[in-house]
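[SOLVED] Need 3D model of a two-part complex

Original post:
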Amino acid sequence: MEIKVVKDIMGANDQIAQKNRQLFDKNKVFVVNVMASPGAGKTSLILETIKRLKGKVKVGVVEGDISSSLDAEAISKEDVPVVQINTGGECHLDASMTASALDNLPLADIELLLIENVGNLVCPAEFRIGEDMRILIASTPEGDDKPFKYPLMFHEADAVLINKIDLLPYLKFDVDAFSKAIKGINQKAKIFPLSCTTGDGIDKWVDWLRGQAKG
Amino acid sequence: MHELSITQSMLDLVLEQAKNAGAKEVGKINLVLGEMTGVVDRAVQFYFDFLSKGTPAEGATLSFKVIPTTARCRNCAQDFKLGEFDWTCPHCKGNNIEIVGGKELFVESIEVD
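Solution:
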């Protein structure tokens, strides 16, 4: 006997993501899923963002890594609530892992929650976690061909942050060609060239983020 | 590597459907996989073989229908398969496209006894 199913395999995850979303909405928390390859600058970007929002927006952070609490320790020096999730081998955060971290965060005292996903340009794109916005950090040493190699990730991003632009004089990275490739597959994506080392472009990103969070 | 959790979700869904139908055994699972998802059929099969052990789906055949990444041009409305390093429309050379196929990831049907 054949049974018609036609059900999305990600349905179970999406249901939990929806519950996370309800919890965020109830507490008026704007949630950003920060995705990138390892070493692109996710933690640095989060640190720079926190510094510029200090005293203006109450920020909280979830750090997702396969192992270690190095990133959470770096963030906690900024005196913001932070929870580390160790996925224990899983290459992405999913909705239920995210839900387990929320129990340990004072959500009522957080206006902006930055969730750092596991460094990976493939798997995190499949898993919704209840976020309002997905951002992708692409750093210049990774090369300007990445939108073609990881189309789903670039297709899903609300904003693409091009990090390490201070290294452009030493690299063959064509910012215009890269931006054009992104726009080819994702017209809505905002693109922010910046450097977490020199601080160039960070204010522009943070101003935009604040505007989005208020809206 | 996302195939492990994706295969577990797929198996949970299949077992629930089989149980609802009062089936004792699942013989075949028909899956639809979009190319863009990066989900690899061989990896799904590998994880399925051990995750399904001892369940009514043990030994079931997995059938994969792979959907190519397909784009639609917003200028001339033609569909085309997305090239590897070229995302311009082959018909009008436009650079404004939307993805209309390749993101699928679902169980189409199961065959049970």
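Edit: The two ends of chain B are 32 Å apart (CA to CA).
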